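Quick bug: RNA polymerase sigma-70 factor, ECF subfamily output formatted oddly.
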Amino acid sequence: MPSPSWQARSSAETRPETGSEHEPDAEHRQAWDLVHSAQRGDTSAFGKLYGRYVDVVYRYVLIRVGDKELAEDVTSETFLRALRRITSVTYQGRDVGAWLVTIARNLVLDHVKSSRFRLEVPKAEVDDGRTVQAGPEQQVLSKITNAELLKCIEQLGDDQRECIALRFLQGLSVAETAELMHRNEGAIKALQHRAVRRLAQLLPRGLR
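Here's what came back:
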């Protein structure tokens, strides 16, 4: 029986699951079926994984780096690394997308170490129609247009910006966000609260 977390045994880009155990839904099972097919030598399976997750990875990277060409390069490198490690990744209860975003996140951090950049993201690049359960914080964000949201996000600190990107633009759970950011769930909830409160303060007056 697989244990309730995922890892790529040969990769340093994974961490033990910090969230609670849960059964994978049909979409997650289908994604892992593609991983297993790729591990057995099905060359088309990895292409299907790419098609399924490339937009998710690209949008995450774009929010972090603020440059379309760089985001495309990092996204490509993410999938190249994933392909090289596909034979060692094992299903242990987590989404394939979380593994890919972990790789992308570390590539972004490598870039941050070598240069600084300013967030300038075209609004059309991040509007993918994903919905997240509308709690009080999501209701605050729903008042903001894409252009206004990105202008506000630009003024957040790096950690707050990443938390907002993962939770509300990518729709990851608190547990998934905590794992990717290497923090506990309580810290992510506090970070999310501060980030959304700050975004609310930055809202145009007519939207408050």
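Actually, after a second look the formatting is fine. The chain is about 60% helix and 0% strand. Closing.
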